[in-house]
Write a structure and sequence with these properties.
The protein starts with a strand and ends with a helix. The protein is α/β, with parallel strands linked by helices. It is about 35% helix and about 20% strand. α7 crosses α8. The strands form three sheets. Strands 3-2-1-4-7 form a five-stranded mixed beta sheet. A five-stranded mixed beta sheet has the order 10-9-8-11-12, sandwiched between helices. A two-stranded antiparallel sheet has the order 5-6. The chain has two domains: about 130 residues, ATPase, nucleotide binding domain (Nucleotidyltransferase, domain 5); about 170 residues, Nucleotidyltransferase, domain 5 (2-Layer Sandwich). The chain contains ten helices and twelve strands. The chain is globular, with a radius of gyration of 20 Å. The chain binds zinc ion.
Length: about 325
């Protein structure tokens, strides 16, 4: 094993870059802007230049780099082909080959960002010590990643772990970002619980501290629930029901050791885990009824850790 590696997490506004020692500790981490003009044509060249500059700064040769792991916001096939990243303007092309070519043929591994974050959490975060981990990221949407035997389950179409688009309600009229109706992320994401709060505040005429807020965030809802606000407790319970039910379906197929809950919404902490587990346990298949639930611990660094893990774990 060579002494260094890079973990790169490409997001819609910034690229998080991690320069790592091969034991998984950071040498340094930094960010560069994601240039999306010209269909994102400059994103990989920018990353290549940033890596070269960082190596020069530290006096390290490319020969001492084991590889570069990259997380991208779109479906990724096994050989590093990205099947379109709408957020970046990318169509279908081999990201691993392209970036490797820009960096003297250093090995490059590419994964979907949610899957890669799950790998990071399995390696050094909430799933540390376990081989089989399901991670759910509750942010603007609901992302997911499935790690089996320490490896990402990417699937045949790069859609492995797309937990957010499991259909939970057949009679939903609102449309999800994916074009379907009734997806988990329409109820269980930060955006989803805020959307549900507007519907409930309209329907339920009881008093709630949420009514005094000009703009409601998911944090407001969890904060109010913690103080006993009945309407907020109902919203948190609905989110728990949606996630708990979906995760019971998933564990019947995947049977992980642990389910890790991450993303901005997970900052709510124990109240969130309690709401999910309350609905999970009664409907889960008996053999996986006691599956553990844990909060993610790596935060925004999970993607960089998971990305570098891909090259250190080949
Ligand atoms: Zn959807």
């Amino acid at each position: 094993m060579k002494p260094y590696a890079f973990g790169i997490d490409i997001g819609g506004t910034t690229v998080k870059c991690g320069f790592f020692n091969s034991d998984g500790t950071f040498v340094e981490k930094w960010e560069i802007p994601t240039r999306k003009e010209d269909d994102g044509a400059m994103i990989l060249p920018d990353i290549a230049e940033a890596i070269k500059a960082k190596l020069a700064e530290h006096g390290v040769s490319m020969d001492d780099v084991e590889g570069i792991g990259v997380g991208v916001p779109g479906p990724v096939l096994d050989d590093g082909v990205v099947n379109g990243c709408v957020n970046l303007g990318w169509g279908v092309f081999n990201v691993a080959e392209k970036l490797s070519g820009l960096l003297g043929d250093v090995p490059v591994q590419v994964g979907n960002d949610a899957n890669v974050a799950a790998l990071g959490e399995q390696w050094l975060g909430g799933g540390k010590g376990f081989k089989n981990v399901v991670m759910v990221t509750l942010g603007t949407g609901v992302g997911g990643g499935i790690i089996i035997g320490g490896k990402i389950l990417a699937g045949s179409h790069g859609a492995g772990g797309e937990i957010g688009h499991i259909q939970m309600r057949k009679n939903e009229t609102a449309v999800c970002g994916c074009g379907k109706k009734g997806c988990l992320e329409q109820y269980a994401s930060a955006t989803g619980i805020v959307r549900m709060s507007k519907i409930l505040l309209e329907k339920d005429k009881n008093d709630s501290s949420l009514r005094s807020l000009a703009e409601i965030t998911s944090k407001d809802i969890f904060d109010a629930a913690k103080t006993g606000d009945a309407l907020s407790l109902k919203l948190v319970d609905t989110l728990g029901e949606m996630l708990g039910t979906a995760l019971a379906h998933i564990t019947a197929v995947v049977d992980p050791d642990v389910i890790v809950i991450g993303g901005g919404v997970s900052k709510a902490g124990q109240i969130l885990l309690d709401a999910i587990e309350k609905h999970y346990r009664p409907v889960a298949f008996h053999a996986c009824r006691s599956t553990q639930f844990k909060l993610a611990v790596l935060g925004n660094d999970a993607g960089m850790y998971g990305a570098v893990r891909m090259v250190l774990n080949r």
